[in-house]
Amino acid sequence: MPDGTATAAMPIGPIAERKTNIRWLIVAMLFVVTTVNYADRATISIAGPVISKDLGLNAAQMGVIFSAFGWAYVIAQLPGGWLLDRYGSKLVYAGSLALWSLLTVAQGFVGFVTGGLAVVVLFGLRFLLGLAESPSFPGNGRIVAAWFPGKERATASAIFNSAQYFATVIFAPLMGWITFSFGWPWVFGVMGGLGIILTVAWLRLVYSPIDHPMANRAEVDYIAAGGGLVNMDQPAAKDAARGGEWSYIGQMFRNRMMVGIFIGQYCINAITYFFITWFPVYLVQARGMSILKAGFVASLPAICGFLGGILGGIFSDWMLRRGWSLTVARKTPIVGGMLLSMAMIACNYTDLQWVVVALMALAFFGKGIGALGWAVMSDAAPREITGLANGVFNMCGNVSSITTPIIIGAIIQATGSFNDALVFVGANALLAAVSYLVIVGEIKRMVLVK
After folding, report:
1. Residues 148, 316: Cα–Cα separation, whole Å
2. Residue 57 CA to its chain's centroid (Å)
3. How far apart are CA 81 and CA 14, in angstroms?
4. Hey, how many other C-beta atoms are within 10 angstroms of the C-beta on 196?
């Protein structure tokens, strides 16, 4: 019988399962792999001054070699996106990582040839590296679209995208020290070996949301409720990627929003490729720094770029949670960041090294804040062809990986100065801001006409 003592109410029905947070482990893995991805791209720029001296290459030849990666990377974006849609992110990305790591190792053996043959061999290896890395960023965007609800996508995208700056923070000093202490071939060997180790880790840790052994039902439901494409790599989705979607590419290029996004990404990437190709050379040749000092100094603006990249995503998602429209929340940091990036032009008006470094740091910080293109694509890409759409986006953006190194090399060769090159890069930042303000319009998920 009741004794009059108060008792706690017993819960009725099943206890709600506390959701796991494996999605943040996935984006951490994307961050690590993308850091190595960008470091492998940048090996040639860190070792560039020594390679050009040892192999007798001039600025125009180095510009062509710098561009080799971009030619292949652009060409392979559509096939890379199709492979992701057809065979899934896990396996395609793992194969890409293993192959680009082996090609990085191979570049260390170019020292056995000289002159014109060295240009051909190095260009060829960099070209193959671009082919191998082509699925990486479309894969990143695809994985974020699968693993994250809309209100967390800008932060997740900013985390993996900020790896491009973190790569310079960590690996520019390391590669500069390796080059100075052991010679430039060791840079390629160390970085390629690290990538091979990461391939094993990738296969053990990365799965789609509904297949991941560590993600529970509560997390999968949370992601799906927020718009995450949790079934992306299932057989039905892969069957849909067998050919009909190619007709949709034309629709993207007839869509004003998509065209504006593509133009903006081209211009944003032009800033990126200045920093990962010519910037260390600028510090050595235009500012008189040693290769060792340039490696360390190059990391300072990159730290600011990394911080800006993280803050841009967090700020955008904060605006979204505070009730701002998706369009305003995404455009505000992009436009503001691009205008801030134009600070690099002021380097033409000072001879003080510390002022140059400070201005470049400010420019890189702005570029980091504004580099939200992948978050925008996670919001805007058609659901049926996410991998292919990200491939088109990355293809358009990385045309600048071809044009930027060549144009800057030609400017330096013609003028003997980096001044006009900095104006060229700053003009790209301005055009990116104008594209998002004038062309893009409302940001929303594109619906295909079938």
Report:
1. 15
2. 29
3. 42
4. 14
Q: What DSSP letter does each residue of 432-447 carry, written as one string?
A: HHHIIIII--S-----
Select from 368, 358, 366 the least CA-distant residue to 300. Answer: 358
Task: Please state, in angstroms and as integers, the Cα–Cα distance from residue 328 to each residue in 159, 323, 375, following that order.
Answer: 20, 10, 13
pLDDT, tens only, 369-389: 998 998 899 888 887 777 788
- Per-residue pLDDT of 183-234, as tens digits, reads 778 888 888 899 999 999 999 999 888 888 898 999 888 988 887 766 666 6
Provide the whole-model pTM.
Answer: 0.72
List b or e across 325-352, with b for residues whose CB sees 16 or more CB atoms inside 10 angstroms.
ebbebbbbbbbbbbebbbbbbbbbeeee
The whole-angstrom separation of Cα 252 and Cα 257 is 9
pLDDT exceeds cutoff 70 at 120: yes
Task: Supply 178's token pair.
Answer: 């390796």
Show Cβ contacts of residue 109 under 8 Å, excluding neighbours closer than 6 positions. Answer: 185
Backbone angles phi, psi at 231, to 5 degrees: -95, 15
Per the structure block, which two tokens stand in for 423? 């104006």
